[in-house]
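Spend some time on the protein that follows and explain the fold to me:
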Amino acid sequence: MNSIVPLELSSREAYLEQLKMRNLLAADVATFSHLDSERFGIRVARAQVVRETLLRVLDFCAAERIDLLIARCGTSDLVTAQEMERNGFLLMDSLVYYGFDLSRKAIPLWPCDFLVRRLEADDHDQIRLVASQAFKGYSGHYHSDTRLDQRKCDEGYISWAERSLTSNGAADEVLVAEHNGSVIGFGTLRSNSAREVEGLLFGVAPEYQRRGVCPALMVQSLRWCHSQGAQKMLISTQVTNVSMQKVWCRLGFEPSHSYYTFHKWFKL
């Protein structure tokens, strides 16, 4: 692997222009994150990395004057993970995916005392409240980075929930758990393809956690997947979230794949 070395250039700007001229800024290696950049007040990029693209990703960040790169690589790709560490990347979390194969498994029954229904127009404020409570201090890659404002990290999950309530493509379906007329939990779903649906964001109000709300949301999610003709549902969480993984296993989900999430700061 050969990296571009800016020899005898008159300025950093000339070097960055050289990178662009050599077509190393293809959008398939990294993308500028407008949402993260606006939230944290810095220039943030995201990338899915394999060893063959790592240097191109770093060159992208140099040319775009990125302050923070959020990058993922498969946990089975230790060569890439170790190369990233040698280049100053810091591990922030490990994300594990589970899948439910609707083509060979029946959707389980899960009795509960809560109503699970589709989103209604007047749910928005209550969902925002649940999200703010459920994800405060959540142990994801944002909160693991001590250089990021923890309050703004909390806001990231609230914003994610809010975007899911609109028709901007953040989610294709939003399910709501209700008890005594109040929203106590929610789940957002996105169709990745005609065959696959992904559960993106699930939150339960703290006082209702460990009372069967999340399993009820999961079962209704599987029913929605089936109604859409999907054959598989995916869902993910931090590898440290063992209690949630136990719930998924009881429902019939199986481990599928996993990723490391790294952060790299370009300014000390």
Observations:
- The CA atoms of residues 2 and 55 lie 8 Å apart.
- Residues 1-9 have pLDDT under 50 and may be disordered.
- The longest strand covers residues 90-101.
